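[Q] Does anyone have a clean structure-token version of this?
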Amino acid sequence: MTIQNGDDPKCVDEVRQVRALNGAIRDGLRNQQAILERRSVSVPDNVIQNLVSLDEHLERLEHTLLDEQTELEQLRALTETSALINSTLDLDQVLAQAMDEIINLTGAGRGFILLRNRDTGELDFHVARASDGDERHDVSRMILNQVITTGEPLLTDNASSDPRVNKSETVGKFTLRSILCVPLVYRERVTGAIYVDNRFREAVFTQRELNLLTAFANQTAVAIQNAILFAQVQTTLVEITRMKELMENVFASIASGVITTDQAHTVTTFNRAAAQIFAVPTEAAIGQPLESVSPHVGELDQYLDIAQSGRSAAVEQQTSITGRGPVDLNFKVSPLKDGQQNTVGVAVVVDDLTEQREREQTLGMAQRYLPPGMVENIHEIAGLALGGERRTVTCMFVFVAPYSVFPSNLRAQAMMDMLNQFLETATDAIHDGRGVIDKYMGNEIMVLFNTQLNPQDDHALRAVNTALDMREGFLRLYERLGLDPQPHLYRLGMHTGVATLGNVGSLNRRNFTAIGDAINLSKRLQENATPGQIIVSDDVLRAIGSAPADIQAAERGSIQVKGRKQLTSIYEVFRA
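[A] Here you go.
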């Protein structure tokens, strides 16, 4: 550190004491000389001259000792500061510590550290210090550019009269006196500069400060580069950590199990879904052979070998996993490649199809009990609230055959089998016509057209065509069973009108159905039909409008059905 008053070393104090004593002796001799001259006695001149000469020697000795002591303290401070700035890898801390010591060591009024911007190549101010608190960046750009371009330091003890720099606008504007600027050089590349000046005093900086600041700049350049490299490593590490966390989040969010292995089939990646599928914790699977994680998947080994050879494969297997029981798993096995497209392992994607297969099985069973319209729109049915919606529908009741037609000696199972053949014949025709079977009632079927499940503008015409197709189906059944087609066994009744459709039952068990006068009338028409008749109301014919040429309707008068006061005109329909 620079020597201040009151902090002189002991040797300098002793020199100053000798000088003071010498001066006192010299003054005493001069007083004695004056007294002797008044008495006409003289003191030899050489005595006085010797004392003066001794004083000059002592003064030079004092300056020499002060310079040496200052240089010693500066070198000591340089060593301590070099160790300090190399003890941290924080760039801002390095620059701040360096600048504080530069001001302290050189006696500058202001100091700046500028670094070259890696993107633009321009010099950016990183640290500014001023003894008077004025840290404005009013430095000579001409001096900076010269130092950066040449890579050589610049020292001027009176900038205003120095022809190298006195043309600088900054020097003239701010009346800069002493200026010292040295480059920061790392591996023969100028990475920045240290700039110090004093706006009020000349000759503040000497060759000693230049040498000192150059040595300090060399140390600082290395420390700065180390800090920059450390910051880059930290940034890279943060980015790697962020990407790792992102990949972990992605793997954790994927519904499919994702497993990767090395060439020895040792597990290297095992996401959360895979842990749930195989009932094995992720940390327990990593580093283990894949065969030990999935011991019951018999054919997986051969598919791993296929993937190892560079090809992909897929397989679905049924197996049993401890803690889960029977499962259906779909495996997609692919080669895992590095950036050079070399196979370094295997990637396995596992989809758990257990619930899907169970739903498909349940749906398959439902199709045996529910018509296609209900199966296909099961979610829409479930969304209907208890209650209903009024809409115009065509309702048809089908009586397939009387029980008396079946041989009396048939056992119950055989009778049921025979009845089901009649019901199946009717059901096929209904499904072909896109009707919805509301329910089976023994040897009768209730059918609806134009419900929320099968909206149809031509529902009345569809219902009539379905009934006529059903008649033809029954004729084929009679022939197959060896029954006399005369008389026909079936009876059909049909009506078009407004009914209330929706779910009935409870929150735990409900049925989709239709109720209302239109439904009741359809049933009554079926009851009033004779064997082999397809009876429709006049509302059905009005809903059809202009009937196709192959459909004929014969009026059968009017009847009064149970539960109704007014008469209902009825028609029997045929296919021409």
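[Q] Thanks! Anything notable?
[A] Residues 171 and 438 are 102 Å apart (CA to CA).
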